[in-house]
Design a protein that fits this description.
There is one protein chain. The chain has 280 residues and is α/β, with parallel strands linked by helices. It is built from twelve helices and eight strands. The chain folds into two domains: 164 residues, Rossmann fold (3-Layer(aba) Sandwich), CATH 3.40.50.720; 85 residues, ProC C-terminal domain-like (ProC C-terminal domain-like fold), CATH 1.10.3730.10. The protein has an eight-stranded mixed sheet, sandwiched between helices. α7 packs across α12. The longest helix is centred in the C-terminal third of the chain and has 23 residues. The radius of gyration is 22 Å and the shape is elongated.
Amino acid sequence: MTNKTTATICFIGAGNMASSLIGGLIANQYPPQNLIANDINAAKLQQLHDDFSICTETDNGIAISSADIIVLAVKPQVMQQVCRSVAISLSKTQRKPLFISIAAGIRESDINRWLGGDHAVVRCMPNTPSLVNLGASALFANSAVSLSQKQSAEKILQSTGITVWVEQESQLDAVTAISGSGPAYFFLFIEALQNAAIELGLDNETAAKLARQTALGAATMAIDEDVCTLRQQVTSKGGTTEQAIASFQHNGLQQLVLEATQAAAKRSVELADELAGDTI
């Protein structure tokens, strides 16, 4: 994953996303002895050890001592504290690992500053379907990241889904609004479809089963096909689908989606600003 295929990867934070990435790496034959998880929660570490037979450590200084790649998988609110602690531990070594942050809303420049500066940092925006290996992650690399390090970061995130690179970090705010928050939009639509089915006379179980399977089938078909073409194929002139689509358009669905995603992107910028200050 770096120049050596057995790079040691340390995950700081042992939550769901870290567990998903670790599981994805091992499923892709990454050696568990080269994976380390660090957290203050011993129970979470024990679970990871039991599930994947990886190394675990409650002391981040020990955990990162041999790491080639450090994945920062902690909540945004504690990122500054964690980074400053890692900086202290790194100052005692000569190591210059690649840092990969999967924390929402924390800019690369702030992470780098809290780490002491002059570090290779890749910032990622994954989403919750990564938990079921159907994730969509966008990545941004600062100027200190080498080509081999970019490839390493990409492979780690690809263990749970697809990846795309953005050239400007500000584009991650748009990514947050689309794929980061996006699963909730689809959950809301499925919920609305279920409720509509019940209003039309179906029982709860049937409504849920049909709405969810329809969403799964449509998403699966859309993976390799143009969605506009697919929609046109389903929408027969004078048919039932045409009436529903016309109602959506009359009520401004596309404008509503645009305004919603713009609001999400705006909030992403605001959160980054709120989390940027030095509080320690």
